[in-house]
Amino acid sequence: MPAITQSLGASSATGAPTPYLPGPHLLPPDIFHNLGQYSPWFPASPLSAHEDTSIQCTVTFVSQLERHGSRYPTGGAYKQLRKTLRQIAKHLERVPEAGAHGNPTEGLDPHLEWLRHWVEAKKSEDGGLRNRLGNSELTPYGQFEAYSSGWRFYEQYAHLFDDTRIEVNTDFDLEMDRKDVKAKSLLDLVCSTPETSAPATAWSVLPLFSHVRQGVCRVLGSGMSSSSAKQGRHHTQRPFVRASGADRVVTTSRFWLQGFAHKHFRHAPPESAPWPQKGRPAVLDGLKSGKPHRRIRDLPQPNVIIPEARKADKLGQVFSNNTLDVYTCSAFERDYRDNAQSPASIKTAAFASNATAPIRARLASQLGVRQGGSKDRRGERLHLKPSQVQQLFSLCAFDTVTRLDPYGLLYSQPERNEGAMSPFCDLFEPQEFESIYEVATNMEKDYGFAAHNPLHRALATPWLRELLARLEDRAPVMTPPTSINTTLDKDRDTFPIPSAQGPRAFVDFTHDNQLAPVIAALGLWDEEHEWVTSLTTPFSGRLTVERLECGQDDFIRILVNDQPASVSKGSWCPDSALSHSDQLCPLSVFAEPLQWVDQPSEWEKCYSKKDKKRQESESQSS
After folding, report:
1. What SS3 state is found at 336?
2. N or C, which end of the chain has less CB nearby within 10 Å?
3. Domain annotation covers residue 568
4. Domain total of the chain
5. pLDDT computed for residue 97 by the predictor
6. Long-range contacts of range 279-288, CB-CB < 8 Å, 24 or more positions apart?
7. How much is the pLDDT for 284?
8. Helices assigned H by DSSP within 386-438
């Protein structure tokens, strides 16, 4: 059975170095493996997938659901962070240095002097976020996470893309080949004739132009030699890739495809904030660019982009069903999503109120807040709420993934990432990330979207229907359509199924709040298993479903961030005695407990009688 690579190897099957992700020396696990959904991606179990088996198995099909890479805060979170930091900034305007008035217990803790720079007066209007953090889009490190994921995917499943199969969606490869031909023609035209015998043209008459000519030829020649070096490993096939319509999701799919093709990584400058931050290492000269990701040359596109618009919007997207971003379950939208009275919100708030009390007291002391009363001579006292402490926890993650330099990782230049860990991480003790912040995010996701939400199966139904259909080489059930886009799924060009003529690998890109219910609905763990957000839906988190051929039999293996699911746990493989391995479930056994996805019962929980009538009316008019 082919082993799933758990950590990035020193070299790939193509002979090129594999792009490394940060190690524990750069991102300490006690912090960055406990940041919930804001944890940078890490393999959940670096060793357990390497299981020996006497049976020879081959992966014949793979379907992966992957969250977008590391990003800046979304609009709502950005506004809340700005409010909190602005509040701290106004407070610090009146706080002296520690001991400035003879009292060593008053004033700002010397270890937090850096915070003054963050929220200095000229930046107090936004608490220092401007020119530091962007809004919603991927950070360059998030782009690199996606690139690395695509690279690793090819290394793991290269045999699914052999040259004997029909080429599928190779438009970006063909375009690259055409550009290579044009570049070679230009190289021959400009550079093939020696200067000594060249006619009197602008290329040879003046020394200045001669110098320019040499530079142009050097650049063209370098590009051609690089392209020629890759000829033997240029991929002519790729997985079928879909992306939900959010910019950060589409961007992730494009950099993922760039990595899959083993092309050179070059970041796309963020549009909402300068990168790198002031004081961080400058971008390498040869990799500077002023173009946003949509115009980066040769960056591939996904096969299908499904709009996320709830209604027609200014970007021209129109409302449509979306398997990768389900917003058509009325009961969930009404009772759970962004609802302060939902069980997830109530439980998380109650826990945070108690758990953050010591932290709030400690930060008040460190920030020079005077004890007693609601005011002092400097004005209103600084009262940090539990939710604001959680925001500061999250800023540890957001600021760090903003500071991380992918080129330092790609070119083994560790000095480029010195000091990459955000100083906001030092506001907390390392153990507080696991015992407080991770626990809070676990509650939020578990009761909000995963196993303890009564509608999690409904949210998972569309994607699991499509998965089951592909495993059984048939079209998905579309009655009722649930959140499936029937226009796309009825068309074999936009929803192919595995066959001798079609792709055998499928990769979908989504959000954490869609990935969580799908993982939960598969029943991979026992009921007493605690949901851990950082192990399931971190940045670039992924669910991988493999079909393996072992002798004459087909089996299923499921991995969550490289951690294989055990057939002896959970409900996903009810007759585990038939399995030859703790990781392999017979296909027929796996499919049996999933028959509910093709039935209407779970999805119907989304609607009251009034909702159902409206849904039927909308379906008939669409």
Report:
1. coil
2. C
3. yes
4. 3
5. 81
6. 280/403, 280/405, 281/405, 281/408, 281/415, 281/416, 283/407, 284/407, 287/407
7. 60
8. 386-403, 406-410, 430-432
Q: In angstroms, rounded to a whole number, what is the distance separating the alpha carbons of residues 517 and 544?
A: 15
* CB neighbours of residue 310 within 10 Å: 13
Digit-coded pLDDT (tens) for 326-358:
999 999 999 999 999 999 999 999 999 999 999
Cα angle 25-264-32, degrees, rounded to a multiple of 5: 25
- Could you tell me if 350 and 465 lie in one domain? no
Instruction: Tell which residue, 467, 465, 460, has the closest CA to residue 521.
Output: 460
Clarify whether residues 457 and 605 are in a common domain.
yes
Same domain, 413 and 464: no
Which residues of the chain fall short of a pLDDT of 50?
Answer: 1-15, 47-50, 52-54, 121, 123-124, 164-235, 291-292, 374, 379, 621-622
Closest CA to 259 of 182, 156, 396: 156
First vs last C-alpha separation in the chain: 46
What range does the domain containing 82 cover?
Answer: 77-132+340-439
Residue 93 located in a structural domain = yes
Claim to verify: residue 469 and residue 592 sit in the same structural domain: yes
The answer as to whether 355 is a domain residue is: yes
Whether residue 152 is contained in a domain is answered as no
The CATH number covering residue 514 comes to 3.40.50.1240
Question: How is residue 268 written in tokens?
Answer: 């796309």
Question: Whole-angstrom Cα distance, residue 261 to residue 227?
Answer: 12
Whose structure tokens read 């049976």? Answer: 55
Note the helical H segments in 230-307: 247-260
Q: Are 519 and 543 in contact (CB under 8 A)?
A: yes
Contact criterion met (CB below 8 Å) for 402 and 270: no
Could you tell me the two tokens for 369? 């807040």
Name the amino acid, one letter, at 499.
S
Contact predicate 251/257, CB 8 Å? no
Residue 549: which H helix or E strand, with range?
A: strand 542-550
How many C-beta neighbours within 10 Å does residue 552 have? 5
d(CA 103, CA 113): 17
Residue 384 CB neighbours (<10 A): 21
Single residue among 423, 439, 455 that ends a domain in this structure: 439
pLDDT tens by residue, 559-580: 999 999 999 999 999 987 766 7
Provide φ and ψ at 97, rounded to 5°.
-70, 155
Distances (CA, A) of 250 to 77, 138, 485: 21, 10, 18
| Peptide bond before residue 292 is cis, with ω within 30 degrees of 0 | no
Q: What is the pTM of this model?
A: 0.83
Looking at residue 380, its pLDDT comes to 55
Q: Looking at the structure, do residues 215 and 350 belong to the same domain, yes or no?
A: no
Query: How far apart are the C-alpha atoms of 237 and 168, rounded to whole Å?
Result: 6
Residue 17: the pLDDT is 56
Last residue of a domain, one of 187, 212, 235: 235
395 and 459 co-located in one domain = no
Q: Are 520 and 19 in contact (CB under 8 A)?
A: no
CA atoms of 263 and 254, how far apart (whole Å): 12
CA-to-CA distance for 25 and 22, rounded, in angstroms? 8
Residue 596 burial (10 A CB sphere; 0-12, 13-18, 19+):
middle
Q: Give the Cβ contact number of residue 41 at 10 Å.
A: 24
Sort strands 563-564 and 553-560 into parallel, antiparallel or unpaired: antiparallel
Q: 165: Cβ–Cβ under 8 A, 6 or more apart, which residues?
A: 237, 500
Residues 397 and 503 placed together within one structural domain of the fold: no
